[in-house]
TrEMBL record:
Residues annotated as domain N-acetyltransferase: 4-139
GO terms assigned for molecular function: acyltransferase activity, transferring groups other than amino-acyl groups
CDD domains with a match to the protein in the record: NAT_SF
Keywords for the protein's UniProt record, in alphabetical order: Acyltransferase, Transferase
Record protein name field: GNAT family N-acetyltransferase
Acyltransferase keyword on record: yes
Keyword check for Transferase: yes
Pfam families (alphabetical): Acetyltransf_1
Superkingdom, natural source: Archaea
Transmembrane segments annotated in the record for this chain: none
Length: 139
């Protein structure tokens, strides 16, 4: 079996594999919308591969805001359901932290859906701390 690796997803074939995994997190959005994220200027998608199989992805960008200065914002992080609990999510988070340091970021941040206590427990176990709330309104 090939070693595990994390690399940027840049090809159509890579996105073909990534979209179903992303839709495990964002099941309420259609596939063309998910694919449109690829066109965003600063959105980068990285995949965790094991034995040639894509098992998880993380979408990230860098941002500047008053309360966090320059930081890496995780838009999406998901490991395919059958591969959760194997350390892939922790590896993706660790990768993002290194990626962010290389870009002079001071923080890594993300939003967690209300009621998703399992994910929140995972993030806290990995050293992320709850900081506040994200609030929104649909337009």
């Amino acid at each position: 079996m090939d070693a595990t690796r994390i690399e940027e997803v840049t090809t159509d074939e890579g996105w073909d594999c990534a979209v179903p995994i992303l839709r495990e997190l964002w099941s309420d959005v259609d596939e063309p919308f998910v694919r449109s994220w690829r066109e965003e200027d600063d959105y980068r998608l990285f995949g965790r591969y094991e034995g040639g199989e894509l098992v998880g992805v993380v979408g990230v960008s860098t941002q500047r805001v008053l309360h966090h200065a320059r930081h890496a914002w995780i838009h999406d992080i998901v490991v395919t359901g059958s591969r959760r609990g194997e350390g892939h999510g922790a590896a993706l988070l660790s990768f993002v932290e290194s990626w962010a340091r290389e870009r002079d970021c001071e923080y890594v941040a993300l939003a967690n859906r209300l009621g998703n206590e399992g994910a929140l427990d995972f993030y806290e176990a990995e050293g992320l701390e709850p900081w506040g709330y994200v609030v929104e309104t649909e337009l």
